[in-house]
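Lecture 7 notes: from sequence to structure.
We start with the chain below.
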Amino acid sequence: MKKFGSVFHIVFLMLTLVFSAMGQTTMSVTTQIGSKSIPQDENFILSFTLTSAENASATLPSYKFPELLNFKKQGVSRAKASKSMNGQIVNTYTFSQYYLPDKPGNFEIINEWIEVGNQTFRLEPFTIVVNPALDTEEFTEELLPSELILTSNDPLFVITSNTDKPFVGQGFTLKMSFFVPESNTQEFEFDRNDIQIPALISNMKPKFCWEENFGITTEQILKVSINKKKYTEYRFFQATYFALQNQKIQIPALKFRVISINRKGLEAIKKPVFFTSAPVEIKLRDLPHHPLSEKVPVGNFQLKENISSSNSKTGQSLLYTASLIGDGNGALWNYKSPESDYFMNFVPISVQTTVAPSQEKMFGNKTDKIQIILKQPGKFALSHYFNWIYFNVKTEQFDTLRSKIVLDITGNSSDHVLNTDRAEDEVYRRIENKNTLEVSWARWVNWSQLVNLILIFLAIVIAFLVWKRPN
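Predicted structure tokens for the same chain:
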């Protein structure tokens, strides 16, 4: 009995391990190192990518990027790509940590790791070359509170938006920053930003909006120029929002607390100082009347397309790739592959969508890959099959992106002839030469008919037996 008991425990343990392994998320992880030669005012980037074939709602593992000597962490951005391949969704997540160098120089990075879940991934030693910055960048914010126009030498706490009258569905970017003039000699230090910044962000976030966050986890320190006056900007938050309905967005005045330090000899006198931001009001505009006004992206988009060959023959297949790139909400692209017709067949291969920050805006990219099987000779403009409608915020009108590719197809019509020269049609090799009268009786359609007849016969027998049963 003891022997059977130990065997039972071993089998039970093996089954537990098997089911545990089956229940775990299968993810592959790869790490990437950004440019190793940068100016002092640009970020160095470390990234890792997760690839998973599970549902998009699955929980992602925790992660931790290393602390780099002579660099300050600026924030993490996240991009997601989804591919539909053979009926299965493959999700790819890319996390990028931004580092701002403290000074120019050559910095060796050795013995550093990126932690993802319970795994650690060692980075091969490398050197980052940081060159001196050329010039201080000009602050290009379209809308600045009136405080920034003043000649005051005091620091400023501001909430800014790149537009105050966006259309419903158009992206607008909000930032929360603290500006300190370089000519200001007052000494300050931040006061529990880990507590007050999340609270301020909670009070400023607009409702009824889709958010794409730039992933700033610690303040970004930027050197900027406003009206030819130099400032140090401490950026605490940045996100792009897409309003889902026409409701006025009002961001209240917010108070930001710092510690002012006055030194008298060896004594440092500290006291809290409050800076109040100006309220921000964003008035939304409705789109013009259109049947698709609630189902199309709003923004600036362009189409980049590619075809494996514009000259081909009937019976062959081509690979068509279309990428829709822009600063609007690409999740609203509701496009399906065109239906096959007398001239060509369309077979969707994959769909990939990504959303990631680029400079001061959030950009999306939706890429479709479609196989085109050619059936008839002639010249065909793909604009009749591939077009995407969106609302253009520059022209303030609905616009359409159309394919500019024209196919020149030669060969014979393939109405009733199956191309058996393609490898994927190997199973049908020479089937066009078969006599349909010689096809075996054991086809599935015959078996299904036989099963139906048997079921009908059994039903009749059961009904007869019930009818003959004595009362």
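Points to note: The radius of gyration is 32 Å. The longest strand covers residues 71-85.
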